[in-house]
Design brief:
By secondary structure, the chain is mainly α. It has helices at residues 10-35, 41-69, 71-79, 109-140.
């Protein structure tokens, strides 16, 4: 059962009072503008609209207080919403990525990329072997180095 303990929130009450007062003041100002010589129908529309904003401020605060203090009210609100998820088949299916196009030799781009990467790996290994072989040959004959000719 919901507790009947009421919370008093002076800051929120003050905010609602100030907001409603400002809205009503703006309605008064728009009504004065409408009655002046430069007033238009738009001023009259605003003069009628601002009190509705003031009433909404009071309604929103009242609804906040009721929903916060009464869990049964929250349950009633949630149960009256109806459908809460999108039914299956309502939306179109998500687009799928297009299959990789075939090349002239009948393979996909993915196969070509894999083959290219394999060739690059072979070249890197061959370069590493050549670099190791040339390093070994320079270590065997240190006097053959043209920069060390002064020895």
């Amino acid at each position: 059962m919901a507790s009947n303990k009421r919370r008093h929130r002076p800051a929120l009450i003050a905010l609602v009072v100030v907001a409603a007062t400002v809205c009503l003041g703006l309605a008064w100002w728009q009504l004065d503008r409408f009655e002046s010589s430069s007033g238009t129908g738009q001023n009259l529309g605003y003069a009628l609209q601002w009190p509705a904003f003031a009433a909404f401020c009071v309604y929103a605060y009242r609804k906040f207080v009721v929903l916060e203090s009464d869990p049964d009210e929250v349950d009633k609100l949630n149960s009256s919403r109806g459908v809460t998820e999108i039914p299956e088949g309502l939306l179109p299916p998500r687009p799928k990525s297009a299959p990789a196009p075939l090349t002239e030799d009948g393979t996909t781009d993915g196969a070509q990329i894999a083959e290219y990467n394999r060739l690059l790996a072979e070249l890197r290994e061959a370069d590493a072997r050549r670099a190791a072989a040339s390093a070994d040959s320079t270590n065997d004959h240190p006097t053959d180095n043209p920069q060390r000719s002064n020895q």
